[in-house]
Amino acid sequence: CTMHILDLSMRSFRNFADATYEFDNELNVIAGANGAGKTSILEAISVALSGRSLRKVERYASMVQFGSDPVEARIETQVMAAVRDTVTVAIDARGRKTMIDGKRVADLKTLAEHFAIVSFVPEDRDLVKGAPGFRRDTLDRICYKCSPAYLTLVKRYQRLVEQKKSILQIASSDWRQQLVHYQQLFIEAASTVVEMRSRVMNDWLKNANQHLKNISGGALELTGVYVCHTADKKDANDWRYADAISFDKEAYIKRLSETSDNILFRERAAGRVLVGPHRDDIALSLNGHPARFASSQGETRAIVLALKMAELSLLNDAHQTTPVLLLDDVTGELDPERRAYLFQSVQKMASQVFVTTPEVEELLDYRPGQLIKL
Predict the structure, then answer these.
(1) What is the per-residue pLDDT for 320?
(2) CA 274, CA 318: separation in Å to the nearest integer?
(3) Quick check: 163 pLDDT over 80?
(4) Cα–chain-centroid distance for residue 157?
(5) Residue 151, burial from CB neighbour count under 10 angstroms (0-12, 13-18, 19+)
(6) What does the longest C-alpha to C-alpha distance in the chain come to?
(7) What whole-number distance in Å separates Cα of residue 331 and Cα of residue 122?
């Protein structure tokens, strides 16, 4: 089925005191000058349906309009997929409370089970040029969007990393004995996370490569491997898994156990966990060369577009529901051919699209069903 957002109401959210918008089932263009609130509309949709902002925010309370009384922001949206859902979000100094049809949402896993959205923002160029953490976080989000149970697995792993870190930092002489129990749980959790990541990464990059070939007329090829970094950045023996087939869980557990034992006193001295999925990366290659260094600005944009289109396809297959696509000020970064490829592709998938732009004229050729001018 196809997922559609029917409308959105915001009160005391960012720079919107009280606003309501109805949406088209296909293309919705939100136009206006910088600071008018274009991104805030997409952010409200993202917060309601995925529990996360499109921007880097330290506290949800920062989304509440300054000077509002009471100090609370409210978002309400109706979503039609297999059934019609009403999602409401209340944001105050204590955080965010989300409800679906009047029932409290306990965690992000519930939202991932109900709704499928993909966002494309200018910062996504860091998928190619940025630090490993950005690629890890993106892969983790795709994993739990495709399989919401993954969120439980990765949170368990993160708790074990913190518990192991706490033991490494204690002054007690029996710290090694205390670590024995957590070490085994840590290794088992790590292997489960990497197994899932490598499988999803394989499907994601294969799909992205096909999109990139279509975009470039066959001139560009994208490949990638999952890299399990060891503690020493100079170590040439990083473990690389090209895809899920090459991932041997038993061998991974053995290797991680040996490495963890070998660097235990280095971890003790550093007071932190130096090896594991929280240090891993995806090594992307363009035509056989490291994409981080070899890709031009235009090629980087093409790679990111291909990765986003692949994410859209993966979620469509996983949910049997066409995801909603949020495009924040990115069409201006695409040349006319790539922009046309983007809109033609989402039209074929029948995705509902929300796009912000300062220049509405560049999108009129795509016949937006709803044009919101701020």
Answers:
(1) 85
(2) 34
(3) yes
(4) 18
(5) buried
(6) 71
(7) 10
- Which contacts qualify for 51-55: CB closer than 8 Å, 24 or more apart? 51/96, 51/98, 51/105, 51/108, 51/111, 52/108, 54/119, 54/121, 54/326, 54/328
Helices (H), ranges, 35-174: 38-50, 108-114, 126-129, 132-146, 149-169
Rounded to the nearest 10 degrees, what angle do helices 175-216 and 149-169 cross at?
Answer: 140
Q: Which amino acid is at 164?
A: K
Backbone dihedral angles phi then psi of residue 97, each to the nearest 5 degrees: -125, 120
Distance, CA of 27 to CA of 48 (rounded, Å): 20
- The span from the CA of 287 to the CA of 222, in Å, is 6
With b meaning 16 or more CB within 10 Å and e meaning fewer, what string describes 277-295?
A: bbbbbbbbbbeeeebbeeb
Report whether pLDDT(277) > 70. Answer: yes
Determine the Cα–Cα distance for residues 265 and 100; give it in Å rounded to an integer. Answer: 49
CB-based contacts of 294, cutoff 8 Å, min separation 6: 286, 287
Full DSSP string of 222-243: EEEEEEE--S-TT-S--EEESS
Provide the pLDDT confidence category of residue 234 given band limits of 50, 70 and 90. Answer: low
